Task: inverse folding
DNA sequence: GCTTCCATGTAATAGGTTACATGATTTG
DNA sequence: CAAATCATGTAACCTATTACATGGAAGC
């Protein structure tokens, strides 16, 4: 069956009641943010189905000027389903990076574009790290704390690699020698400009 | 437009002619293996479409006892399309990990299952690393060498974290005190069984 | 003798995203 | 006054996966 949005929702609800809206937030900004995501378009139908299957229930809170808020709770059957789902073997991690694909072809790019991409990636990593720091306190279990620390370790390693090795693909390109008007930031004594 | 299977194929073909079959292999085992993948069901239609668009051409090699082998080559228009595709801004990396999701709920698992998952993950990472070592020589450009080294750095960091910190979630579980018949591998003096 | 490798391709299905529809309230 | 936040939900779309169809040759 593997882990789909339904199971992800059960996971969230196992730690406390929440509405669909709140759950989307939690996936984006919470402790699962760095390795899972889900949009409203998948969460709401998932909750409907979980309700039909008896794995969650909800209480409807009337609100002024907004749709009623449905606060979902996991049922005992839901807990069982969660436990069953995490008792199997996980599928291989899936990592998809357009950044790395593009950088693979750095030789076909203008040098400024290479630098721009690296800069952008480093910024993104830093933002990632900041977000991880933000949710640090939210880790309520040992499992979550472990996963959080794992995320930090990987982000730190990525950041370190990028900052320490970017010079390897910046500076003069050997295959497409282009007239560089600006002096490269890294003096690059090996290039002998 | 972003990077889809079509652009990925153009990327591969920019470094040499190949058949659809060979391209799938290349995605799985080659230098892109750790951050991209594609199945036959997406590659073959993509090549058909690329042909229609004039971005690739193919030569048909008659073979005995097998379908003719179609060896694809990138065209000049294809090269332009590739360059255009890598000139934009990449989408955010997508990382999806069922392993981390499951481990988040380590507290709900039998201790042996936690250990099994970690063992499995470490094995997988080692296999990853071995595969990266295998393709080391295939990196023909600086870009590819950089991406390859990046992959190694991340895998090494993951592996290091897992081996050094697994004890944090192994051993006695504080929330579900279960009668443990087998003595835990890590004596866990803090649990005071 | 069974499995894996070679080699292409299609059809059914799954699983999601994006955009839309609706609309008051709070924040800048 | 505009934008973001709260709040749910649907419909159209996209992209890719899985399984199937076909079949000889080579390795174990």
Result:
């Amino acid at each position: 069956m593997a882990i789909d949005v339904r199971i992800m929702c059960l996971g969230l609800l196992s730690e406390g009641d929440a509405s669909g809206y709140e759950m989307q937030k939690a996936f984006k900004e919470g402790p699962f943010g760095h390795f899972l995501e889900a949009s409203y378009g998948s969460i709401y139908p998932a909750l409907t189905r979980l309700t039909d299957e008896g794995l969650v229930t909800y209480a409807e809170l009337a609100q002024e000027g907004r749709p009623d808020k449905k606060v979902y709770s996991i049922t005992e059957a839901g807990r069982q389903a969660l436990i069953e789902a995490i008792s199997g073997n996980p599928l291989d991690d899936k990592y998809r990076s357009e950044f790395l694909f593009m950088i693979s072809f750095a030789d076909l790019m203008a040098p400024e574009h290479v630098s721009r991409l690296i800069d952008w990636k480093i910024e993104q990593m830093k933002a990632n790290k900041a977000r991880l720091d933000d949710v640090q306190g939210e880790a309520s279990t040992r499992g979550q704390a472990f996963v959080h620390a794992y995320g930090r370790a990987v982000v730190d390693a990525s950041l370190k690699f990028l900052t320490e090795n970017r010079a390897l693909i910046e500076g003069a390109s050997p295959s497409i020698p282009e007239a560089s008007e600006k002096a490269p930031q890294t003096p690059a004594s090996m290039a002998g400009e």
